[in-house]
Protein: Leucine-rich repeat-containing N-terminal plant-type domain-containing protein
Organism: Lupinus angustifolius
Amino acid sequence: MTNTHKTVHTLLIHILLISLFPLKITTSPKTEGYALVKWKNTLIPPLPPSLSSWSLNNLCTNWYSITCDNTTNTTVSDINLSGLNLIGTLSQLSFASLPNLTNLNLSGNNLGGSIPFTICTLSKLTFLDMDSNLFEGMLPYKLEKLKELQYLSLWSNNLNEIGNLKKMRILFFYQNQLSGFIPMEIENMKEIKELDLSRNQLCGPIPVEIGKLKEVTMLGLSQNQFFGPIPPEIGNIKKLRQLYLYQNQLSGLIPVEIGSLKDMV
Ligand SMILES: *[C@@H]1O[C@H](CO)[C@@H](O)[C@H](O)[C@H]1NC(C)=O
Ligand SMILES: *[C@@H]1O[C@H](CO)[C@@H](O)[C@H](O)[C@H]1NC(C)=O
Ligand SMILES: *[C@@H]1O[C@H](CO)[C@@H](O)[C@H](O)[C@H]1NC(C)=O
Ligand SMILES: *[C@@H]1O[C@H](CO)[C@@H](O)[C@H](O)[C@H]1NC(C)=O
Ligand SMILES: *[C@@H]1O[C@H](CO)[C@@H](O)[C@H](O)[C@H]1NC(C)=O
């Protein structure tokens, strides 16, 4: 065969193969287990002995830290790897292979790098806990597409941007690298109940828009570089119970509106 013929021939075989096996991700305990083992093998040893239970079989029966869904018991719903001192990144974790995951807890490890945008394929994710790690950079912008996500704990990392999180109810972002003015996206978080941005490098005045967060019960802005007066609009947040403003350069008096908040402790 000539070279051209060879190329055309190979191309045809490729097209044939692609049409026979459409690129569709199907789940089964096998593909989910495979994705997790593949990721485990990218972590820097020594790994905790408990993770030797991650073999390719028995995903829902005896894998350490893995819980399967409570109806069919065949697909992963919970992963709790908190406090294991795992070292590595998430770049090789195929989130698309874990479509039924609702709870992911990676808190208290030494995982770093960026938070991959593929995490946005976890459409059922409700609780995401990645605090006390070394994650850096910005949050994936499409995180707002995760309609079920209500709880996002990212305190003590090196993250520098929040992105758009309209549906969030609980957001722990203290002890990160946020800088500049308070992110304007905050104003869109209409359902937020607990928001902690303490211990970052935020500066500027506290924006009056903060008063639009009607559901907030806890607001942490301490240990930043905010300056100027405390906006009286904070008094509009009737459900506010805990407000942390210490260690800033705020000036002026505490607005009387804040004193009138009934539930303040
Ligand atoms: C899932 O199946 C395993 C093995 O049969 C069992 O140990 C476990 O308790 C089951 N979990 C649920 C939630 O039914
Ligand atoms: C099963 O899990 C779902 C979602 O986490 C929960 O709402 C439901 O109450 C659970 N059912 C049982 C029987 O535990
Ligand atoms: C997650 O794992 C940690 C450490 O093993 C344990 O203390 C904690 O209770 C677990 N949380 C859940 C919800 O199972
Ligand atoms: C898990 O996710 C797949 C793909 O979205 C879906 O077809 C399947 O019904 C889900 N299983 C359960 C038990 O929710
Ligand atoms: C994650 O695990 C830590 C440590 O066990 C625990 O304090 C935290 O509440 C867990 N997060 C969630 C969302 O369950």
Notes: The pocket of 2-acetamido-2-deoxy-beta-D-glucopyranose (ligand 2) is lined by residues 70, 102 (CB under 6 Å). Confidence is low (pLDDT under 50) at residues 10-24.
